[in-house]
Amino acid sequence: MPVADSTVLGLTAVIVAVTEEVPRVLVVRRMTHNLATPEQRDATAGLDSLPFGPFAAERDRTLEQGLRRWVEEQTGLPLRYVEQLYTFGDRYRDPRELEGGARVVTVGYMALVQEAPLSGSGAAEWHDWYDYFPWEDWRDGKPDILTRLITPALRRWVAAAPDSAAAAKRAERVSTTFAEEELWDTERVLERYELLYSAGLVEEARRDRAIRARLGLALDSAQLDEPELAAALGTPMAQDNRRILAVALGRMRGKLKYRPLVFELLPAQFTLFRLQRTVEALSGVQLHKQNFRRLVLAGGLVEATGAQEARTGGRPAELHRFRRDVLRERVAAGVGLPMVRMVD
Question: Quick check: 25 and 245 in contact, CB under 8 A?
């Protein structure tokens, strides 16, 4: 197997917005830098990619400064709130490493914005993030794709284990990751995606397997090969970008409980209904209206502005704003997702 003799550092952005109750992520279809794959250089041929570029140490004083520059160049979008997610450096995350190319390590960031028109060199587009993780959206109850496709496929994967001990390990992993409704953990997005990858059920697993087969390398015998199912399990992304997106979604859902990040996605004034719908869009579950409002108001997270939102018909809704003093008053100032209930 060829061994890469160099490592390069990249910067990747997960840019999130919520528009009309749809959680959206910004993807690009074209890149021109020297880390772009041939497909990423052609907007008509490539897969969805997160905004990404190499870190230029001679040009950018900090990693975040480099990230902001690449994002604005590729999307035309200036960023406000940005936080570092994780460093992704698994061997062969860029498949060109299998053929002796450099090992590409990327530092992932999450940025929260309000959706805006796009420009720049990347042929950028806003996409619903549940297009990539359709099993994560429980707002209308348990997703049909779980019952109809994923659960039966995971049973086949357990049954295909080489021995009883391996089958037991697989079964335990399935039962804890894809738990029943009352035990479903909204934050375990990455674990669920990685399990589907390990089982060979998502398109990225099939793509990576095909690359290894082409190069005459050993294949993962634990994986199933079900192309029709893989095509149904969400939109694939370039390289390991869907894994990076899964990390961001899990991080966002966790932080909703103790940090007021959701207000970065809202205008300065908003209704409590819009606030609730935004939290529901991000968490993927429906909230109990009265309990949610009681928690938000009692916790001092918002304050009334005295203004009302004009509506066509019906009673006008009172407008609120984020009460920033809460940041000095409380260590944890989230919207309290323990109040979430699953929809029957």
Answer: yes
Which domains are assigned to the chain? 7-129 (3.90.79.10), 134-234 (no CATH), 256-339 (1.10.10.10)
The share of the chain scoring above pLDDT 70, in percent, equals 95
The helix/strand/coil state of 337 is helix
Query: Cβ(10)–Cβ(71) under 8 Å?
Result: no
123: which residues sit within 8 A by CB, 6+ positions away?
A: 28, 29, 30, 43
66-70, 96-100, 213-217, 330-334: which has the minimum mean pLDDT? 330-334
Q: Which tokens hold the place of 200?
A: 């060979």
Average pLDDT of span 7-21: 95
> What is the reported pLDDT for 99?
84
Model pLDDT, residue 92: 87
Q: The dihedral of CA 291, 295, 301, 303: what is its sign? A: positive
Distance, in Å, from the CA atom of 71 to the CA atom of 291, rounded to the nearest integer, reads 38
Q: What is the pLDDT at residue 5?
A: 65
Sign of the CA dihedral running 198, 41, 80, 87: positive
Decide if 192 contacts 178 (C-beta within 8 A): yes
Cα–Cα distance between 103 and 152 in angstroms, integer? 37
- Pairwise CA distance, residues 63 & 82, whole Å: 12
- Distance, in Å, from the CA atom of 242 to the CA atom of 194, rounded to the nearest integer, reads 10
Band (188; pLDDT cuts 50, 70, 90) = very high
CA–CA separation, 241 vs 199, rounded Å? 18
- Please provide residue 204's backbone torsions phi and psi, each rounded to the nearest 5 degrees: -60, -35
E-only strand ranges, the chain: 7-19, 22-27, 52-54, 81-88, 103-112, 125-128, 270-271, 302-309, 317-322
Quick one: how many helices (H) and strands (E) in the chain? 11, 9
